Amino acid sequence: MTHRQPLPPDMFDELCPSTLLPFRFGDKWAALVLRCLETGPRRFSELRVPLHRVTPKVLTHTLRTLERDGFVVRTTHDQRVVEYALTPLGRTLLDPLNAACDWAATHWDELLDAQERHPEISRMGSAQQVAAE
Amino acid sequence: MTHRQPLPPDMFDELCPSTLLPFRFGDKWAALVLRCLETGPRRFSELRVPLHRVTPKVLTHTLRTLERDGFVVRTTHDQRVVEYALTPLGRTLLDPLNAACDWAATHWDELLDAQERHPEISRMGSAQQVAAE
DNA sequence: GAGGGCGGTATCCACCGGGATACCAAGACC
DNA sequence: GGTCTTGGTATCCCGGTGGATACCGCCCTC
Fold it and tell me: What pLDDT was estimated at residue B71?
Protein backbone atom coordinates (compact mmCIF):
# COMPACT_ATOMS: atom_id res chain seq x y z
CA MET A 1 0.00 0.00 0.00
CA THR A 2 2.92 2.30 0.59
CA HIS A 3 5.31 2.60 -2.35
CA ARG A 4 3.74 0.62 -5.11
CA GLN A 5 3.88 1.74 -8.68
CA PRO A 6 1.09 4.07 -9.62
CA LEU A 7 -1.07 3.02 -12.53
CA PRO A 8 -1.01 5.18 -15.63
CA PRO A 9 -3.79 7.76 -15.58
CA ASP A 10 -5.56 6.07 -18.48
CA MET A 11 -4.26 2.66 -19.43
CA PHE A 12 -7.05 1.98 -21.85
CA ASP A 13 -8.23 5.16 -23.45
CA GLU A 14 -7.94 4.81 -27.20
CA LEU A 15 -6.27 1.48 -26.71
CA CYS A 16 -7.73 -1.93 -27.32
CA PRO A 17 -11.40 -1.39 -28.21
CA SER A 18 -12.09 -4.67 -26.57
CA THR A 19 -15.80 -4.58 -27.24
CA LEU A 20 -14.95 -5.25 -30.87
CA LEU A 21 -12.99 -8.35 -30.02
CA PRO A 22 -14.66 -11.70 -30.56
CA PHE A 23 -14.36 -12.58 -26.89
CA ARG A 24 -15.27 -11.18 -23.55
CA PHE A 25 -13.94 -11.95 -20.10
CA GLY A 26 -16.74 -11.68 -17.63
CA ASP A 27 -18.32 -8.27 -17.36
CA LYS A 28 -17.46 -5.58 -19.81
CA TRP A 29 -14.66 -4.16 -17.70
CA ALA A 30 -13.50 -7.26 -15.87
CA ALA A 31 -10.48 -7.93 -18.05
CA LEU A 32 -9.23 -4.39 -17.55
CA VAL A 33 -9.65 -4.70 -13.81
CA LEU A 34 -7.62 -7.89 -13.89
CA ARG A 35 -4.90 -6.06 -15.80
CA CYS A 36 -4.90 -3.27 -13.24
CA LEU A 37 -4.51 -5.75 -10.41
CA GLU A 38 -1.92 -7.85 -12.18
CA THR A 39 0.97 -5.80 -10.80
CA GLY A 40 -0.33 -5.62 -7.25
CA PRO A 41 -3.27 -4.69 -5.05
CA ARG A 42 -5.12 -1.47 -5.68
CA ARG A 43 -7.62 0.65 -3.84
CA PHE A 44 -11.02 1.52 -5.20
CA SER A 45 -10.06 5.08 -5.96
CA GLU A 46 -6.83 3.94 -7.58
CA LEU A 47 -8.80 1.76 -9.94
CA ARG A 48 -11.09 4.64 -10.80
CA VAL A 49 -8.22 6.65 -12.25
CA PRO A 50 -7.21 4.39 -15.15
CA LEU A 51 -10.82 3.20 -15.48
CA HIS A 52 -12.31 6.66 -15.45
CA ARG A 53 -14.79 5.66 -18.15
CA VAL A 54 -16.43 3.28 -15.70
CA THR A 55 -19.04 4.64 -13.34
CA PRO A 56 -18.61 3.72 -9.67
CA LYS A 57 -21.76 1.62 -9.70
CA VAL A 58 -20.48 -0.53 -12.54
CA LEU A 59 -16.99 -0.75 -11.08
CA THR A 60 -18.46 -1.89 -7.78
CA HIS A 61 -20.51 -4.52 -9.51
CA THR A 62 -17.54 -5.72 -11.53
CA LEU A 63 -15.48 -6.07 -8.38
CA ARG A 64 -18.31 -7.84 -6.52
CA THR A 65 -18.64 -10.34 -9.33
CA LEU A 66 -14.90 -10.95 -9.44
CA GLU A 67 -14.98 -11.40 -5.68
CA ARG A 68 -17.90 -13.81 -5.83
CA ASP A 69 -16.05 -15.92 -8.39
CA GLY A 70 -12.96 -15.99 -6.18
CA PHE A 71 -10.74 -14.00 -8.55
CA VAL A 72 -10.32 -11.00 -6.29
CA VAL A 73 -10.21 -10.43 -2.55
CA ARG A 74 -11.43 -7.31 -0.84
CA THR A 75 -9.72 -6.38 2.40
CA THR A 76 -10.35 -3.44 4.69
CA HIS A 77 -7.49 -1.85 6.62
CA ASP A 78 -7.98 0.55 9.52
CA GLN A 79 -11.72 0.22 9.03
CA ARG A 80 -11.64 2.55 6.05
CA VAL A 81 -8.95 1.75 3.50
CA VAL A 82 -10.21 -0.89 1.08
CA GLU A 83 -7.86 -2.88 -1.07
CA TYR A 84 -8.56 -5.23 -3.93
CA ALA A 85 -6.07 -7.89 -4.94
CA LEU A 86 -5.92 -10.87 -7.24
CA THR A 87 -6.25 -14.29 -5.67
CA PRO A 88 -4.16 -17.22 -6.91
CA LEU A 89 -7.25 -18.38 -8.78
CA GLY A 90 -7.67 -14.95 -10.31
CA ARG A 91 -4.07 -15.04 -11.41
CA THR A 92 -4.71 -18.26 -13.33
CA LEU A 93 -7.19 -16.31 -15.45
CA LEU A 94 -4.28 -14.41 -16.92
CA ASP A 95 -3.38 -17.46 -19.01
CA PRO A 96 -6.50 -17.52 -21.15
CA LEU A 97 -6.60 -13.74 -21.07
CA ASN A 98 -3.10 -13.58 -22.46
CA ALA A 99 -4.01 -16.16 -25.09
CA ALA A 100 -6.85 -13.90 -26.15
CA CYS A 101 -4.57 -10.85 -26.19
CA ASP A 102 -2.00 -12.73 -28.22
CA TRP A 103 -4.67 -13.65 -30.71
CA ALA A 104 -5.77 -10.05 -30.95
CA ALA A 105 -2.23 -8.81 -31.44
CA THR A 106 -1.69 -11.28 -34.24
CA HIS A 107 -5.02 -11.23 -36.04
CA TRP A 108 -6.51 -7.83 -35.28
CA ASP A 109 -5.85 -6.53 -38.78
CA GLU A 110 -7.38 -9.57 -40.40
CA LEU A 111 -10.47 -9.10 -38.29
CA LEU A 112 -10.83 -5.47 -39.34
CA ASP A 113 -10.25 -6.37 -42.98
CA ALA A 114 -12.95 -9.02 -42.84
CA GLN A 115 -15.39 -6.61 -41.25
CA GLU A 116 -14.74 -4.03 -43.94
CA ARG A 117 -15.25 -6.67 -46.57
CA HIS A 118 -18.74 -7.41 -45.19
CA PRO A 119 -20.27 -4.01 -44.44
CA GLU A 120 -23.76 -5.34 -45.14
CA ILE A 121 -23.68 -7.46 -42.02
CA SER A 122 -23.82 -4.81 -39.36
CA ARG A 123 -25.59 -5.87 -36.23
CA MET A 124 -28.67 -7.91 -35.39
CA GLY A 125 -32.10 -6.49 -36.21
CA SER A 126 -32.05 -7.85 -39.80
CA ALA A 127 -30.87 -5.92 -42.80
CA GLN A 128 -33.78 -3.67 -43.65
CA GLN A 129 -32.67 -1.15 -41.05
CA VAL A 130 -29.69 -0.48 -43.27
CA ALA A 131 -31.92 -0.58 -46.35
CA ALA A 132 -34.22 1.98 -44.74
CA GLU A 133 -31.47 4.57 -44.69
CA MET B 1 -20.62 -33.23 -48.03
CA THR B 2 -20.75 -36.88 -48.86
CA HIS B 3 -19.30 -39.13 -46.19
CA ARG B 4 -18.31 -36.82 -43.42
CA GLN B 5 -18.76 -37.76 -39.79
CA PRO B 6 -22.17 -36.88 -38.45
CA LEU B 7 -22.24 -34.67 -35.40
CA PRO B 8 -23.62 -36.11 -32.20
CA PRO B 9 -27.31 -35.35 -31.83
CA ASP B 10 -26.65 -33.08 -28.89
CA MET B 11 -23.05 -32.23 -28.24
CA PHE B 12 -23.82 -29.72 -25.58
CA ASP B 13 -26.94 -30.66 -23.73
CA GLU B 14 -26.12 -30.88 -20.06
CA LEU B 15 -22.50 -30.31 -20.87
CA CYS B 16 -20.46 -27.20 -20.29
CA PRO B 17 -22.88 -24.57 -18.98
CA SER B 18 -20.74 -22.03 -20.73
CA THR B 19 -22.87 -19.09 -19.65
CA LEU B 20 -21.45 -19.61 -16.17
CA LEU B 21 -17.91 -19.37 -17.38
CA PRO B 22 -16.07 -16.11 -16.84
CA PHE B 23 -15.53 -15.65 -20.57
CA ARG B 24 -17.54 -15.55 -23.72
CA PHE B 25 -16.50 -16.00 -27.31
CA GLY B 26 -18.56 -13.74 -29.49
CA ASP B 27 -22.27 -14.35 -29.40
CA LYS B 28 -23.75 -16.74 -26.92
CA TRP B 29 -23.56 -19.74 -29.25
CA ALA B 30 -20.55 -18.80 -31.34
CA ALA B 31 -18.08 -21.01 -29.52
CA LEU B 32 -20.32 -24.03 -29.96
CA VAL B 33 -20.68 -23.32 -33.66
CA LEU B 34 -16.91 -23.15 -33.95
CA ARG B 35 -16.68 -26.52 -32.25
CA CYS B 36 -19.23 -27.98 -34.65
CA LEU B 37 -17.28 -26.73 -37.64
CA GLU B 38 -13.92 -27.73 -36.25
CA THR B 39 -14.09 -31.19 -37.82
CA GLY B 40 -15.32 -30.03 -41.19
CA PRO B 41 -17.98 -28.05 -43.03
CA ARG B 42 -21.61 -28.43 -42.05
CA ARG B 43 -24.95 -27.49 -43.51
CA PHE B 44 -27.44 -25.27 -41.75
CA SER B 45 -29.73 -28.14 -40.91
CA GLU B 46 -26.82 -30.23 -39.71
CA LEU B 47 -25.89 -27.49 -37.27
CA ARG B 48 -29.44 -27.32 -36.02
CA VAL B 49 -29.31 -30.91 -34.77
CA PRO B 50 -26.60 -30.58 -32.11
CA LEU B 51 -27.63 -26.98 -31.48
CA HIS B 52 -31.31 -27.74 -31.18
CA ARG B 53 -31.60 -25.28 -28.29
CA VAL B 54 -30.86 -22.43 -30.66
CA THR B 55 -33.70 -20.95 -32.66
CA PRO B 56 -33.06 -20.56 -36.40
CA LYS B 57 -33.12 -16.79 -36.13
CA VAL B 58 -30.35 -16.76 -33.57
CA LEU B 59 -28.35 -19.41 -35.40
CA THR B 60 -28.58 -17.37 -38.58
CA HIS B 61 -27.43 -14.30 -36.78
CA THR B 62 -24.55 -16.14 -35.14
CA LEU B 63 -23.42 -17.46 -38.51
CA ARG B 64 -23.76 -14.04 -40.15
CA THR B 65 -21.63 -12.48 -37.47
CA LEU B 66 -18.99 -15.19 -37.77
CA GLU B 67 -19.06 -14.66 -41.52
CA ARG B 68 -18.72 -10.91 -41.20
CA ASP B 69 -15.70 -11.35 -38.97
CA GLY B 70 -14.10 -13.71 -41.47
CA PHE B 71 -14.23 -16.79 -39.25
CA VAL B 72 -16.67 -18.73 -41.38
CA VAL B 73 -17.48 -18.93 -45.09
CA ARG B 74 -20.90 -19.64 -46.48
CA THR B 75 -21.04 -21.39 -49.85
CA THR B 76 -24.06 -22.43 -51.88
CA HIS B 77 -23.96 -25.57 -54.01
CA ASP B 78 -26.55 -26.42 -56.68
CA GLN B 79 -28.35 -23.19 -55.79
CA ARG B 80 -29.84 -24.71 -52.69
CA VAL B 81 -27.38 -26.62 -50.54
CA VAL B 82 -25.67 -24.22 -48.17
CA GLU B 83 -22.48 -25.12 -46.40
CA TYR B 84 -20.65 -23.36 -43.61
CA ALA B 85 -16.97 -23.91 -43.01
CA LEU B 86 -14.21 -22.47 -40.88
CA THR B 87 -11.75 -20.14 -42.59
CA PRO B 88 -8.05 -20.25 -41.72
CA LEU B 89 -8.65 -17.15 -39.61
CA GLY B 90 -11.54 -18.86 -37.88
CA ARG B 91 -9.32 -21.81 -37.16
CA THR B 92 -6.84 -19.55 -35.36
CA LEU B 93 -9.62 -18.76 -32.89
CA LEU B 94 -9.37 -22.32 -31.63
CA ASP B 95 -6.15 -21.42 -29.81
CA PRO B 96 -7.65 -18.94 -27.35
CA LEU B 97 -10.80 -21.02 -27.23
CA ASN B 98 -8.80 -24.06 -26.20
CA ALA B 99 -6.95 -21.98 -23.64
CA ALA B 100 -10.30 -21.00 -22.18
CA CYS B 101 -11.51 -24.61 -22.19
CA ASP B 102 -8.29 -25.75 -20.54
CA TRP B 103 -8.79 -23.17 -17.84
CA ALA B 104 -12.34 -24.35 -17.30
CA ALA B 105 -11.30 -27.97 -17.11
CA THR B 106 -8.67 -27.15 -14.51
CA HIS B 107 -10.41 -24.56 -12.38
CA TRP B 108 -14.12 -25.24 -12.81
CA ASP B 109 -14.43 -26.72 -9.32
CA GLU B 110 -12.65 -23.82 -7.70
CA LEU B 111 -15.01 -21.44 -9.47
CA LEU B 112 -18.06 -23.28 -8.20
CA ASP B 113 -16.62 -23.44 -4.70
CA ALA B 114 -16.01 -19.71 -4.70
CA GLN B 115 -19.52 -19.00 -5.88
CA GLU B 116 -20.98 -21.16 -3.16
CA ARG B 117 -18.84 -19.37 -0.64
CA HIS B 118 -20.35 -16.02 -1.66
CA PRO B 119 -24.06 -16.66 -2.06
CA GLU B 120 -24.86 -13.09 -1.08
CA ILE B 121 -23.43 -11.76 -4.31
CA SER B 122 -25.95 -13.03 -6.79
CA ARG B 123 -26.45 -10.81 -9.77
CA MET B 124 -26.60 -7.09 -10.44
CA GLY B 125 -29.62 -5.15 -9.25
CA SER B 126 -28.13 -4.51 -5.79
CA ALA B 127 -28.69 -6.70 -2.79
CA GLN B 128 -32.07 -5.60 -1.48
CA GLN B 129 -33.81 -7.77 -4.01
CA VAL B 130 -32.50 -10.71 -2.08
CA ALA B 131 -33.34 -8.99 1.19
CA ALA B 132 -36.88 -8.39 -0.01
CA GLU B 133 -37.54 -12.12 -0.19
C1' DG C 1 -17.84 23.01 11.95
C1' DA C 2 -16.88 23.11 7.01
C1' DG C 3 -15.00 21.00 3.44
C1' DG C 4 -12.82 17.21 1.12
C1' DG C 5 -11.51 12.47 0.11
C1' DC C 6 -12.92 7.65 0.34
C1' DG C 7 -15.94 3.96 -0.82
C1' DG C 8 -19.50 3.36 -2.19
C1' DT C 9 -25.68 3.41 -3.09
C1' DA C 10 -30.08 4.75 -5.13
C1' DT C 11 -32.84 5.66 -9.09
C1' DC C 12 -33.87 5.95 -13.58
C1' DC C 13 -33.47 4.62 -18.17
C1' DA C 14 -32.01 2.94 -22.95
C1' DC C 15 -30.27 -0.51 -25.66
C1' DC C 16 -29.93 -4.94 -27.49
C1' DG C 17 -29.28 -9.86 -27.28
C1' DG C 18 -31.85 -13.43 -27.68
C1' DG C 19 -36.09 -16.56 -26.94
C1' DA C 20 -41.04 -17.88 -28.77
C1' DT C 21 -43.77 -18.32 -32.39
C1' DA C 22 -45.27 -18.08 -36.87
C1' DC C 23 -44.50 -17.81 -41.53
C1' DC C 24 -42.25 -18.23 -46.27
C1' DA C 25 -40.05 -19.08 -51.11
C1' DA C 26 -37.75 -22.40 -53.97
C1' DG C 27 -36.71 -26.73 -55.39
C1' DA C 28 -37.47 -32.00 -54.96
C1' DC C 29 -40.37 -35.71 -54.58
C1' DC C 30 -44.72 -38.40 -55.13
C1' DG D 1 -50.77 -30.47 -57.93
C1' DG D 2 -49.76 -31.40 -53.09
C1' DT D 3 -46.41 -32.07 -49.83
C1' DC D 4 -41.73 -32.18 -47.79
C1' DT D 5 -37.26 -30.47 -46.96
C1' DT D 6 -34.05 -26.72 -46.86
C1' DG D 7 -32.67 -22.38 -45.38
C1' DG D 8 -34.05 -19.25 -43.70
C1' DT D 9 -37.50 -14.22 -42.19
C1' DA D 10 -40.91 -11.46 -39.62
C1' DT D 11 -42.79 -9.99 -35.31
C1' DC D 12 -43.20 -9.60 -30.76
C1' DC D 13 -41.50 -9.37 -26.38
C1' DC D 14 -38.64 -9.80 -22.07
C1' DG D 15 -34.70 -9.42 -19.05
C1' DG D 16 -30.15 -8.00 -18.14
C1' DT D 17 -26.17 -4.86 -18.76
C1' DG D 18 -24.52 -0.94 -18.09
C1' DG D 19 -24.58 4.34 -18.57
C1' DA D 20 -26.12 9.08 -16.26
C1' DT D 21 -26.89 11.42 -12.40
C1' DA D 22 -27.46 12.29 -7.80
C1' DC D 23 -26.77 11.25 -3.20
C1' DC D 24 -24.72 9.26 1.26
C1' DG D 25 -22.05 8.12 5.79
C1' DC D 26 -17.67 8.18 7.70
C1' DC D 27 -13.35 9.99 8.80
C1' DC D 28 -9.70 13.52 8.52
C1' DT D 29 -7.97 17.96 8.14
C1' DC D 30 -8.18 22.81 8.30
Answer: 97
Nucleotide nearest to B127 (CA to C1'): C9
Mean pLDDT across chain A: 84
CB atoms within 10 A of CB B120: 10
pLDDT tens digit string along B6-54?
777 666 665 556 677 889 999 999 999 999 999 999 999 999 999 989 9
Question: On chain C, which bases lie within 7 A of the protein's CB atoms?
Answer: 5-11, 16-22, 26-28
Nearest CA in chain A to B99: A96
A111 interaction partners in chain B (CB closer than 8 Å): 69-70, 89
pLDDT in tens, B80-92: 899 999 999 999 9
Cα A109 to Cα A104: distance, rounded to the nearest angstrom? 9
- Let me know: does B48 contact B6? Beta carbons within 8 Å: no
Nearest CA in chain A to B125: A61
At B53-82, the pLDDT tens digits run 999 999 999 999 999 999 999 999 988 899
| Residue A22 · residue B24 · CB < 8 Å | no
Q: Return d(Cα A49, Cα B64) in angstroms, integer.
A: 38
Q: Which of A67, A103, A121 sits opposite B92 (nearest CB)?
A: A103
DSSP A57-71: HHHHHHHHHHHHTTS
pTM of the model: 0.86
Q: How far is the CA of B82 from the C1' of D6 (A)?
A: 9
Mean pLDDT of the residues in chain B = 84
